[in-house]
Amino acid sequence: MRLVIVTGMSGAGKSSALKMLEDAGYFCVDNLPIQLIFKFVQITFNGNEKFDKVALGVDIRSGQALEELDDILKEISKKGYHFEILYLDATDEVLVKRYKETRRIHPLSGGGRVEQGIETERKKLEFIKKKADIIIDTSHLLTRELKSQIDKIYTLNEKYNNFYITILSFGFKYGIPMDSDLVFDVRFLPNPFYDAELKPQTGNDRPVRDFVMSAPQAVEFLNKLYDMINFLIPNYIIEGKNQLVISIGCTGGKHRSVTLANELFERLKSLKYGIKVEHRDIDKDARR
């Protein structure tokens, strides 16, 4: 039997993950009292009704009883029951934004600030995050992208690496993305904007892509950027980082940055990390 304990930060997507696991054939139970978890595990492993796949949601709603979870997990392991821990996380900024958009109250903030509730929750969940087998940072994931990750891990049984890369193209005239870890400026490359035929197109179009990559400096830049990213990622992982936002900017975020972001994405796909490419400003000129 496969037992998955789903936990993590409030607002990071635990409820969505449980629904996705349920759709994948898991028997799901959410917010079971901590004191009943061991008995529940015994029943699912040894009961008359056989369960092949079970998911158990545990989070900060358990209150003070959450402090007992560590001992209960040790007891479960001691009895020979195997389980996996899936931990859903997101940055403080993203969590605050989600709470403000949904107008929900953080379970630990009471009448205070959401930020304070998030800080307290992180401290209380630190012990279980350290035990997690899988950590998924949902800060930059759409619901369908989270579903894809869940399906790969718990349906297709693919090996998952707890590191997610977002390659983001942008236009400097609209500002540098706030969540960038690395920022690269490709305004030194020839600009398709000044070609009447290429101007209305984007870096997603073949003519623009060919124009940008025909410049020798574009190829050299891409080669050196790939080598550097390939060097940095394992070192980031050693230091405990689980996500990386690589922002590539040009003037308007429509031609050069889009092309280089796409090219870098194609090269990094072979490294088998979670990865996606986004083009923040690609349509902004068209709306003006």
TrEMBL record:
An example of a GO molecular function for this protein is: GTP binding
Q: Which Gene3D superfamilies match?
A: P-loop containing nucleotide triphosphate hydrolases
InterPro entries, per the entry: P-loop_NTPase (IPR027417), RapZ-like (IPR005337), RapZ-like_N (IPR053930), RapZ_C (IPR053931)
Q: Where does GTP bind?
A: D59, I60, R61, S62
A Pfam family of this chain: PapZ_C
UniProt keywords (A-Z) are:
ATP-binding, GTP-binding, Nucleotide-binding
Keyword ATP-binding appears in the UniProt entry: yes
Q: What is this protein called?
A: UPF0042 nucleotide-binding protein
